[in-house]
Amino acid sequence: xxxxxxxxxxxxxxxxxxxxxxxxxxxxxxxxxxxxxxxxxxxxxxxxxxxxxxxxxxxxxxxxxxxxxxxxxxxxxxxxxxxxxxxxxxxxxxxxxxxxxxxxxxxxxxxxxxxxxxxxxxxxxxxxxxxxxxxxxxxxxxxxxxxxxxxxxxxxxxxxxxxxxxxxxxxxxxxxxxxxxxxxxxxxxxxxxxxxxxxxxxxxxxxxxxxxxxxxxxxxxxxxxxxxxxxxxxxxxxxxxxxxxxxxxxxxxxxxxxxxxxxx
Length: 264
Fold this sequence. Notes:
With 264 residues, the chain is an alpha/beta fold. It has helices spanning 15-18, 66-77, 96-103, 117-130, 133-136, 151-154, 181-191, 212-224, 248-251, and strands at 4-6, 12-14, 31-36, 48-53, 86-90, 108-113, 139-143, 168-172, 199-205, 227-236, 253-261. A hairpin with a 5-residue loop joins strand 1 and strand 2 (12-14).
């Protein structure tokens, strides 16, 4: 029942009448970005992945970033990193890299992003659209805030031994979140296996060249926490935003880094 009161002259004043808002512009429609497999896929069952992106989002989930494309190709070329193993993607956005691992034989893949319904629903859509029903059972979509307890992420993993943990954690274009470096590393440390060889892969672009040093503080903090950090890839793309300030060469380069525990 609609709440309403009457004015002195008997006219009804519903809440909508008292607190009327101007009409808002409609939210942009979702878009589709296609990743075409780069290695020879003539004998394999997939050749492309269509990623739906939310129409607009303050957390930048409405772009398929160059780092995500480079990450997808790197993972496609290196299935030994995750085949028959557990994979966690943080800040997944459209979840292209994680979907590649699911299609290429990962044992269990957990795709996460900030627990915003639009982001989570969009990842779920991409999983259903790109992964067949049989393999879909090995993929889980979760809302997750970096630095929070990882038990909700671990509970979906198969019990292979006494330790439920991830063998590979993938992070695409996240290091620009400077205030969240400690939280990301806390999650990686808590979720990554300590009993099996395990790796964190971090791909990114310096979208703001004047803040490159702050981006790289992520790896300074990682080393301080006992991680061995090594750059494993650089790759050039057209810059995401050609008119942005700063050296185009910097904004056009994707960097890929590997992090493993120093005592591994």
